[in-house]
């Protein structure tokens, strides 16, 4: 299924129904008074979080959402029926903003609901306007218009740990070893074209891990694919910076990653992180020792793995579970 993480939609809440102008007419009641009922309220537009959704793809095919109008009031003080609400389901992690860039809601929980556009109030019938001196008013109110808005939806995946690395660093292989994710992998750059989300479970705790398409130098100026998806690791509490030790310059790759993360948002470079040296089966041990020392001098915590062979994965799982802010789950 195609992954879509941004969409634009138009929503319209329902208008309120018109109040009625009516007079009581009964055979043995010669002086029947006004009995016009109120109009019904217009339906609301509601945003609801749904955990089994993973993309905003549906909004590419349907962009306009309208709630039902309230029904008009009628005689005998009968109130018009309220318009039905319309509920728009979105993936968890969806931010809804207006055209001014103001965030209207941030959907993070399954079943969480927000009224994003309110239906108009129903108009009053003429029964409301009777007074001791004005016993037969014909006055009534029209219903109020419902709110109409253009909305921008942005999906930012909810994960505890994010994996960032250059193309072909082994991110997809690593997330497959750490979690239940089954991403496409291959020995060529840009295997990952969309974010992958996986869950690492240990007893009653889970850690949600996300990896994004590989970053390249100049990504913050629009090169490559990764910058488009960096928003999906914005919310993570910890980052794994994955370095390919078989590359010509692993420490240079580290500098590129830090630069691109901080250029995207300064706070990204300040997140808690672990530098993971991958493909350690392909390089001499003395080189690993040198790189580990150089990174330690820069204040980095370093772990060494071979994601393909599984070396060091269990130790990394332990650290991820300890530092990745696991979530408690039932059962």
Protein model, in words:
- With about 325 residues, this protein is of the alpha/beta class.
- It is built from 6 helices and 15 strands.
- The chain has helices at about 170-180, 225-230, 250-265, 265-270, 285-295, 315-325, and strands spanning about 5-10, 45-50, 65, 85-90, 95, 105, 115, 150-155, 160-165, 195-200, 205-210, 240-245, 270-280, 300-305, 325-330.
- The strands form 3 sheets. Strands 9, 10, 11, 12, 13, 14 and 15 form a 7-stranded mixed sheet that branches. A 5-stranded mixed sheet has the order 3-1-8-5-6, with no helix packed on it.
- Strand 10 and strand 11 form a beta hairpin.
- It is rod-shaped, with a radius of gyration of 29 Å.
Regions with little confidence, pLDDT below 50 for 5+ residues: 186-191
Largest sheet properties? 7 strands, mixed
Q: What structural class do you assign from the helix and strand content?
A: alpha/beta
Q: Report mean pLDDT, rounded to a whole number.
A: 88
The residue fraction in helices comes out at 10-25%
Tally of extended strands? 15
Distance N terminus to C terminus? Answer: 30 Å
Question: What is the strand content?
Answer: 15-25%
Task: Specify the number of helices.
Answer: 6
Radius of gyration: 29 Å
- Coarse morphology: rod-shaped
SSE succession: EEEEEEEEEHEEHEHHEHEHE
